[in-house]
Amino acid sequence: MKKINEILSHLKNNPEFRKINTQKTIQNFIDLLPVNLKKGIKFAYIKADTLYFVLTHPVYKMEFEYNKSLINTLLKKYPILQVEQLKFFVTNKREKKEKININSPIYKERSYGIFSNHLTNEKFHDKIEEIRKIIKNS
Known about the structure:
138 residues, alpha+beta, Alpha-Beta Plaits, 2 domains, 3-stranded mixed β-sheet, elongated
């Protein structure tokens, strides 16, 4: 039986899964960027020898334009990507935030509060009696 590492490496080297390798390479390149640039990137892709960066905010676009020479220098030092141009743009689609519905289930009380309390410790005895009152009132 093959290990998962062998299967993944086989798939990675398969030419049909070239996009997976390209995306991994782009992600490795993004990891090389400075932190102030890295956190503004939504995602990146390559199309016709152009590396497109999709950014989260227009301020990041200005920052990327200002640091374009730095990114080009990094691209030359990272020769795996065959890229001639860089393009930056801000997406106009907003991410939909999923609403998390936290509805605690409401259970109908099935007990009638009829039980004997054999505790001798007064503190615990009183607590059990409080619980009995809550059950009878619900």
